[in-house]
Amino acid sequence: MKTDGDQRSFNLQLTHFVRIFIYLCCLGSLIFGVFLLLAVFRISSSAFWCHDNVNEVPYHKVGLLLGTSPQQAPGIPNAYFTARIEAAAELYRHKKIDFILASGDNRAMSYNEPREMRRALVKAGVPKERIILDFAGIRTLDSVLRAKSVFMLQDFTVISQGFHNERAIFIAQNAGIKADGFNAIEPGTDFSYLKVRAREFFARIKCVLDIYFLETGPHFYGPRINIGDNALPVEPSNKPRRPTSKPKLISDNAKTLKELALAEEQHQRELEALARAQEEAARLKEQQNQNIFNSQEDLPPDDTGMAQSESLSEDAQEQAQREAESTAADSLRDIDRVQKTSPKKEHRTFGDPWD
After folding, report:
1. pTM for the whole thing?
2. Distance from the CA of 344 to the CA of which of 26, 260, 269, 298 falls in 20 to 30 A?
C-alpha cells in the first residue's frame, strides 16, 4: 500500500523528467533553428557566383532558365517572367551561352511554362533550335538536378532573379555542378518585395531540409538527352588498356597446305613429261632425217617420197607438242583451283585490337 511519502517522491521524479524533457526539446529546437539560419545564410553566400553585369558572366555552353508563370493574373503579364526572358536573350546575344535549357512546370494541360518560355525567347531573337525544353522542372531542385542527370550538364549559367539564383546555385554546388548566375531585373513595389522575401525564406528552409536531411531527388527522371556536342558518359569497361598479345594473322590450315604441295608436285611432273616429249619429238625428227639421208644414197632421187616423209615427221612432232601442252594446261588449272578454294594469307597492318 502506497503512502503519502511514496506519492510525493513519484510526483517529484515525474516533475524532474518533464523538466529535463522540455529542456532537451528546447535545446534541440534551438540547435536546429541555429543550423537552419546558418544554412539559410549559407545559401545567401552563393551571391558571390551571381552577376548583374552580362560582361562579368563566365562562358558556359548552356544557360538554365528557371520557369515561372507568364501571367500574374488573367490578362496581366508577369514582370518576373518577362525579365528572365530578356536576361536569357541578352546572354545569348553576348555569346555567353550557346543553348538555353528552359525548365518549368507542365503538370496541367492548360499550364505549360517551357512552351511559353520558348515562344517568348523566339520573339526575343533566340533561334528555336538553340532552345531545349524541360517539361519536368516542377521545382527549382528538379530543374537543377535534372540538368545534371538527364541533360548531362556539369556546368551551366542559372538565369533568374538574384534571390532565386542563390538558391539554385546552392543546390547545384551540393550536387557537384559548377554553376554561375545571371541576375534578371527584380521588378515590383516595396510590398511585393517583402512578400517575395518572406516566401523565399521558407523556400530556403525547405531547400536545406531537402539537401541535408531528406536527400530529395527530382520527381521524374528520363532518358539522357545530349545538348549540342556534349560528350556522352563513358560506359564502364573491363577491357585492358593495352593488348595482351600480338594480333594473329590469317593462316592456311594443314589440309590446304597438303593440297598445294600435291598440286605443285603434279605440276612439276607434267613439266618433266613435257620436256621428255619435246626431246622424243626432236629425236624422232633427227632419226627420220637420217633415214631419209641414207635412203637417198642408195636410191635415185624421189621428190614425192621425200615430201611425204617430211610431212609425216612434222605431223608427229605437232601431235607430241599438243599433248604436252594439254597436259601442262590441265596441271595449271588444278593449281588455280586449289589456290582459289584455299584462304590466302593477308599481310596488313592491324590497328587497336579493341576497336
Report:
1. 0.61
2. 269
* Contact yes or no for 137/66 (Cβ under 8 A): yes
pLDDT given for residue 82 in this prediction: 96
Q: Quote the crossing angle between the two packed helices 162-174 and 140-149, to the nearest 10°.
A: 40
Please give the single-letter amino acid code of residue 314. Answer: E
- The Cα-based distances of 79 to 69, 85, 161 in angstroms read 10, 10, 11
For residue 58, name the pLDDT band (cuts at 50, 70, 90).
very high
Residue 335 confidence (pLDDT): 54
Q: Give the whole-angstrom CA distance, residue 203 versus residue 288.
A: 124
The answer on pLDDT for 70 being more than 70 is: yes
**Beta strands across the sheet bearing 131-134:** 50-51, 178-184, 155-161, 62-66, 99-103, 131-134
Closest among 121, 122, 151 to 135, alpha carbons compared: 151
pLDDT in tens, 18-38: 889 899 999 888 888 888 788
Nearest to 157 by CA among 115, 71, 96: 96
The runs of H, that is alpha helices, within 209-252 are none
Q: Specify the DSSP element, H or E, that contains 72.
A: strand 71-73
Contact by Cβ (8 Å): 296, 350: no
pLDDT tens across 233-247, in order?
555 555 555 555 555
Strands (E), 185-321: none
Report the percent of the chain where pLDDT is more than 70.
Answer: 73
Cα separation values, 224 from 41, 131, 149, 261, Å: 34, 17, 7, 60
Q: How far is CA 290 from the centre of its chain?
A: 90
Bridge-based pairing state of the strands 71-73 and 76-77: antiparallel
| CA distances in angstroms from 179 to 58, 61, 164, 305, listed in the order given | 10, 11, 13, 116
The set of long-range contacts for 316-324, using a CB threshold of 8 Å and a minimum separation of 24, is 316/281, 316/284, 316/285, 317/281, 317/284, 317/285, 320/277, 320/278, 320/280, 320/281, 321/277, 321/278, 321/281, 323/277, 324/273, 324/274, 324/277, 324/278
Q: What is the CA radius of gyration of the chain?
A: 49
